[in-house]
Design brief:
single chain, 68 residues, mainly beta, 1 helix
Length: 68
């Protein structure tokens, strides 16, 4: 966490049903686990540790994540 980044713990509704610890599937990166969610709403940044490609930070509205 950088000094300018605020960690946000969302409720399911504001984060599109995603929660920290949840497993998700991305069409390009495959399966991963949500590590953190910052900022509420569609511009939320979601950090995911993917099995095959490592950690990625994605913007929720563009990520096309599918909970599994």
């Amino acid at each position: 966490q950088t000094s300018g980044e605020r960690r946000y713990v969302p409720d399911e509704e504001s984060s599109g049903g995603l929660k920290v610890g949840m497993m998700v599937r991305h069409p390009q990166f495959g399966v991963g686990r949500v590590e953190s969610i910052t900022m509420p709403g569609p511009n939320a940044r979601i950090r995911i540790q993917f099995r095959d490609v490592g950690a990625k930070t994605l913007i929720q509205s563009f990520a096309r994540l599918e909970p599994i």
